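Work package 3, deliverable 3.1, input record:
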Amino acid sequence: MELTGAEIVVQSLIEEGVEHLFGYPGGAVLHIYDAIHKQDELQHVLVRHEQAATHAADGYARSTGKPGVVLVTSGPGATNAVTGIATAYMDSIPMVVLTGQVPRPLIGNDAFQEVDSVGITRPVVKHNFLVEDVNDLALTIKKAFYVATTGRPGPVVVDIPKDITAHKAEFSYPRDIKIRSYQPELKADSAQIKKAYELILEAKKPMIYTGGGVILSNASEELVKFTKSIGAPITNTLMGLGAYPANDKQFVGMLGMHGTYEANMGMHHSDVLIAIGARFDDRVTGNLEKFCPDARIIHVDIDPASISKNVKVDVPIVGDVNDVVIELNKLIEASDQRLESGALASWWQQIEEWRAQDCLKFNRDTGTIKPQFVVEQLHQVTEGNAFVTSDVGQHQMFAAQYYGFNKPRRWINSGGLGTMGFGLPAAMGVQLAHPGEQVACITGEGSIQMCIQELATCTQYKLPVKIINLNNGFLGMVRQWQEFFYDRRYASSYMESLPDFVALAEAYGHVGIRVTKPEDVRQAIEDAFGKYKDRTVFIDFIIDREENVYPMIPAGAGLNEMILV
Amino acid sequence: MNKHTISLLLENESGALSRVSGLFSARAYNIESLSVAPTDDSTLSRMTIVTSGTEEIVEQIKKQLNKLVDVVKLVDLTESEHIERELMLAKVEAIGEARDEVKRLVDIFNGQVVDVTDTTYTVEITDTRDKLDSFLVSLSSIKIHEVVRSGAIGISRGEKTLAI
């Protein structure tokens, strides 16, 4: 069947099972938009800024495990998408971004709306392509999906010159694909897994430290089984929350800069550290020279380059996290050998002493709304089952610390790049993927303004996301650092001239609620998920202006050197 | 800090070179020389990179290179016996006594004079990097107008190959 390039793009996406395409039209992609208009299998979601298209696709991908797909035009369309592409790249999120390009004869001529999209995105993609022949188009899209979703996932950009979308070619979508220079299917070395198993059995103070890789690999179930059978404490990174149920007693909370005391002390004092699908990020390890001084380290990761990058490990295992944990579980099941129970019991006793510090306690009697309290109430009203997206800053840490995620793919945040503006569009993507589910975006008055135009997209597609705006009138995390390390010189961290968020929400046709007293917090959240269930709701919580995120590891300190309050 | 000569086969596609060079600049790795050209198989280019770093960094460089989708195969030539060559062209002043002196040095270094004017010789030498360096040192009393070097290329000794 002979199709135009534009039709090939649309048909290829349909073949890939794409349901939602997040995008924004422009000159270079007009043929593709015309082809989209002529069919009804693929739903296009019109955002209000290309950055939001990428974040929405990202939220869709994180919450479903399926690749997010984006279509933007050339030039500014592509450059606006870069932040979202980089966000997905840092967190290994599968995404395919189609960018329009000027017609091939104009490439390199500084044509209108021309940028070198392949060049600009190169450092922040897993791979990218410039399509140079309409006959390669379907194959290239197939390759893009294959690369984006296999191995360590990541965003892939396909740059398509406009003339190619008008040219015709015979269309048949390739079934299978092989790329000789790309072998993502790595089978982990069984001997290494055996070695890890033997090391685990020797542990007297084991600690399991898992990250986003567990979620990407859909390995939660096996991880729970593994953790139960060895009886060790487990901590999750910011990216890994929800992989292990937060309400289980073996869970010691998040680790790292704003992790719990018990998680960080447990890491520091462990003798065998089992790192799974985590990458020893600087926000996790603190000072590398002081990191886990007594631990022998097992590291499971699908990316060989993640192994011994920051921390030298003793037992590296390169492979898919789920496959490896399954194999570990088999070894454990096949034997009646377990960790020495006496040692484990005294390790737990030690952990419980740390836990008794109750490092997440906060003052509830101040008469002002505490951000922690809002998150706690949100958890209660949604019974811990909501999809929660966040932006970046204090509110993100409060969400991570106080929501208590019990299921994977429910906590959607920009961990690696730390992109303000991520939360609202990501929530849209999540809501489109899960129409009946509760979706909340925990944000702040700084972050929300970075993509606030998306309130219009929520109107257009009737997306009932609930925006939990923790409004302290400050760029809270910046202010916190200025308080601690710059003698309270609050340079540009004060958010002046805030809009009336309630009026703004209403102007877009949404429900706006302002809450100024602690006693009204619960009701507002209940209303948002109750009587305004089907509406987009913006709750502007006027919170304690100078609350800080505790506990905290100051820069340069070790995990055992936390500031508690 | 050790020098490593890394040889790779990569897809002979537009952009492949910039993926490699971009990786080095983005991750602040050293790059001393880089040379690239198509092989007998026109779909493949062979690249030789001379880099330096601690063992940990060189290990990361190799892993990161391997991760690039365009990289088909990679070998660290430094890890085993190998042959390394670099081509140098140098235009030097050749007036009076220097004319004979340059000629003698070129003979000692197994090079040849490939272009002659009344005042200059253009010299070609192919050897290891170190030899080329010492040739330049030996010219210390001679005025050098211009030097151009190809960057090293390398191949394993014996039957070992880097091929697909």
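The radius of gyration of chain B is 18 Å.
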